[in-house]
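Dear support,

Our group has been running a series of protein-ligand predictions, and this particular one with zinc ion is the one our PI (initials K.S.) wants archived with full inputs and outputs. We had some confusion internally about which version of the output was final, so please treat the block below as the authoritative record. The input we submitted was:
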Amino acid sequence: MNILFGVPLFYYRYNPQLLYKYIKYNEKSTEKKIRYFYGNIACACQGGRNVNFPINWKVIEKEIKDINDNGIGVYITMSKCVLTKEDILDENSNRMMSLINVDNGLNGFIVSNDELSKHMHEKYPFVKQKMSQIRVATENPTYRPIEYYKKLLESYEEVCVDTADVFNLDYIKQLDCSRLEVVCNHSCPPNCPFRPEHQNFIIEQQNKYLKNNIYKIEPFECFYKNRPKENMILTTKNYKDLLNIGFNKFKISGRHDPNVDKKIELIL
Ligand SMILES: [Zn+2]
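Confirmed final output from the archive:
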């Protein structure tokens, strides 16, 4: 079974050439493969981490084509949890969504909001939908009953589970592991209780940018002061254990980081 990764280099303006370096990576690698590149423009439905790159539709279209032509997916982070009707109909968000609505079985939306998901199903039916880790972490930051995930799997093709949950194999194997994904280098400690506040901070910053075009965005860092010592970076043993139960989808976080290539290189 291949180990499949989601990698944050779609529309990564800190270093656009990195995308092409890693598109080539898939030709050589046999065990670890890139399943999709993810990212987004600054727009009303964007979530997770902040984006403050100016929009260039020509570059965006070219990147989508080049990624898909190499058999790799493009996943768009439309993962803001709280959205108004206006946000859902936002022009730039929808233009972005329509660009990956191609019948190739590769592309996906990373989504947190059920109303937006409904809109996507109606308008962009070729794109798979993955429940974002952001929603999981803000709804249930410290503990997630198994029924919670089962319910999400009824409505979403894939669910990104909380990183803390994959360390408990007996717990996670109660679910259909072929439809699960996990962030393999999470920046918060296990069950960080401040994740709803993190999300509010990020949304505030993104709104500031969208309203005033302030280019500088404060970088996000977990503000859990007395954080437990253990981290949430998966080890070789974790990957092995998860592959044994049919869990092979992972996501590398860090699209807000100008030096994300160091993280990617370490993991791939
Ligand atoms: Zn945190």
